Model the fold of this input.
Amino acid sequence: MANSGLEDKTLEGIVLELRQLGASEDRMQRAKEVESIKSGFYKLLGTLKAEAEAAGENVQEKFADIENSFKEVYADFKREKAEFNKQQDEIRNANLHAKQAVIEELKSLVDSLDNVGEAFPKFREIQARWREIGPVPASDFRFISDSYQYLVERFYDMVQIDHDLRDLDFKRNLEAKENFCLQAEKLAESDDVVGSFQALQKLHEEWKEYGPVAKEMRDAIWDRFKAATALINKKYLEHFETLKASFAANLQAKEALCVEVENIAGKEDIRDGAQWNALSKEIEAIQEKWRTIGFASKKDNQKIYDRFRAACDKFYARKRDFFLAVKSDMDANVARKEAIIAKAEALKDSKEWKATSEALIALQKEWKEIGTVSFKKSEQLWKRFRAACDAFFEERDKNFKPENDFRGNLKAKKALIAEVNAYEGSDPAKAAEFNERWKAIGFVPFKEKEAVTREFKDAMSAKFQGKSSLVRKYNELQQEIATYENNIGFFSAGKNSQSLVADMQKRIESAKEELKALEKKIRNFEEGE
Done:
């Protein structure tokens, strides 16, 4: 049985199938199915181990129990099969001794043939006993059969039996051999080519155990049996020629998949996690395609699988190294941000409003220049840093003096934004004037700072910077998306990260929508130019 029925099974399902086969009554005749199941189990186990290893999991711990379960069931079957084979060998040797004894008895009958009337019933009884004896070792079959057939023919040649008994014996032999012909002809029509060929061998063994038919029927009955035999043998040979062709086609298809994976595994220009994840999906699709292709020849099958496995292992090892390096960079960035948080937390209770404001703004600028950290850490660190800043600025805003009129400054800045929006023209000198006036206005309430600053930048970009501002923003957004995708690649290899990955995916989708809007604005600007 081919293991084509195992593709959709889990490792546990394959172990269960082996247990069920091991409990069947005909299990000793199904050794090839057991070996096929074993091949399917270790093929799937190898694939799952590679995937788990790429995901950073403990392969030994994850698969040890199921592999041990399979080995125990398989070992039980092999022990039982070995004992069964030993018993069969003993039975065949006993059958050989029994048939040798029958031959000696037949030889004695032929050598001392005097009274045909007495000899013939004894001869028929010897024939019946011969047929009742089971198979002998394959190495002795031809010699023992030829010896028996020789003595049978000597008996018929030597006896001067009366025609009624002789004709009756010929008739019985003819009926038996006609039945063999019918069985062989049915086998020739069967679609089970291999099973038919094996059954034919048994028919030939039984054919030899019967004596001759009437002389005028001998050629006809043999030609009929031989014709069915020839047809079965032809279909058997054609079947294996077809298998050979399919093996060659399967090998060619698998070689092509090996080349695809080798090319992917050898890529040198993979820059970020998004590319690694996209290539992982390509590898997975190729692996799915591999599973749909049948076996190559026995000589080539393991070699081509080893080649494919090596290419997949190379890719996943490089991917793992990439994300380990990303994690190392992220860890360094975490340390830098934690150092900034420590400084901010040390300043949050300060009453030196101006100096501390400038120090915290400098820390905020330094924060933005630090590279990415993991999504989970990013949220935690930002909340701590923002809390320290908020604590100081909220206290500062409560204690502002007339010379630090934050609300008045906010009102002045909003008025300036309205003036920029109302301005018609693009004079660089005017832009410089607006920027100087903006800088001259003092601090605004901290919670309003980010929003009002963005409003001013957007207004200035629309009036004085045009396409270059949009392109800069577009590039910044692309970098932001790449950072998120790197984080997804890193977290997807870990456990219990589904919610983090889902949240990050939402951010990516939102950023991509904004990216599309920017693309449209850039195109509109180009058309206006």
